[in-house]
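Suppose a classmate hands you a notebook page containing two proteins, each written out with its sequence and a corresponding row of structure tokens. How would you begin to make sense of it? This section walks through that situation. The first entry is reproduced here exactly as it would appear on such a page.
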Amino acid sequence: AKPAEAKPAEAKPAEAKPAEAKKVEPQEPGKETLEQPKDRVGTRTGCRRYWWEFKDSNKEFWGMGHAEVKILSLGCLIGTAMLFYFLPVHPVLLLVNKMEIAIFTSFIILYTFAINRYIPFILWPISDLLNDLFAIIFLGGAVAYGYISRKSLPQPYLIGLILMGVAAFFALIDMSIQTKHFKGKRARRMRVLVPPPPREPEQENEAGQAPPAPAAGAAPDPGMKK
């Protein structure tokens, strides 16, 4: 008897390995997926918005020269107040000097801490421009009045008047810088001047569809006015 021949083993099809599931990293609840623009606020809220407004306001305030000019004007006015403290001076000069010190200080605080960005109903470029204009008028008038009203001019008194005149000159420089800045202002800085969106010409009915047109040759509606 012949020995049984061994049959070749049939190749088994390779089993498909199950696809490995990709691991999805859980996203943090406070993390935003969209990148925020650098040139505008975007959708920032809370502390992130204030931090962006703070940096942008200081960049604009110090980069264009407003801060330096206002600080120099404030320094001159403070020096005048210190010189007038030891001399008999007319109350009008003291009033103008202290008033301008308070106004310049308030503008420096507003722009440094970005408080003006949260008060959009005031046009701050125009307010700053008018402040510089009135500062020039008041300080120039105070210098002229202080020079004419006294016959003798002691040295501290004269130096105080000169410092007031220098402060008025710095206000003039700030006014010229402010006009250049005002020309380049974007519409977002003056949201009050943006016109409202146009109204829709025709309003749809309550169902959301326009009323059907009457068929040709149909009898007119008796309730319709002629």
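The notebook's second entry, a different protein, reads as follows.
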Amino acid sequence: MIRRLKLNKILIVIVLLIAALITEGIIIKSTTEIEPEKKVLIFNCELKRNTKITEECISEKTFRLLNIPEQAIKDKNQVLNTYTSRDITNGEVILNNSYTDEKIINDYKAKNGHVLFSVKFDSPEKANNFNVNVGEKVKLVYAPNDGLNENLPEEYKKTKKFNVEIIEINDVNLSKENEDEYMAAEAMYITFEGKEQDAIFIINAKQRGRLEIIS
């Protein structure tokens, strides 16, 4: 008799646990199903920089509302007959910095005693969270890697700051469409103008330490 009561209690507990799991699954499913969605525009093919954007180049894609970047374009009339501001990969969400009204003609020449040089930043933390703009004057900071080789010249063992100006920005994989998710910029190539001796140091320092932007 006692064994039967214990067995009944165990069965009741198991049934209650199963019922709780089923109820939780239904709640989660219901929440997921009612999450609001919205359509935004994506590029449906690869495009080179300065390519005119036509109807054939763009499509609509539905995303969960919480996953849509604030800069995503929803009205195709905003982008039709404009020009791509950079090279575009198939599936990228169209953002307000993906296009320009006119073709970009970069015939910029560095000031006397200055040169142009480019640096790849592979994470937002290294480039002021990618919150940078063309024409902005910033500081490019070099910091030596931990455990730096003692045989390196002394100049690479110290933290240094360089005053530079941002001349051009190119994003890599900026908000690429993937199902109902999107990816933030994975990397950013930035062209700077700075003193020639500073540029030489920075180019040689890329493999010897960290380069970061502060503004």
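A careful reader of the second entry would note: The first strand starts at residue 37 and ends at 43.
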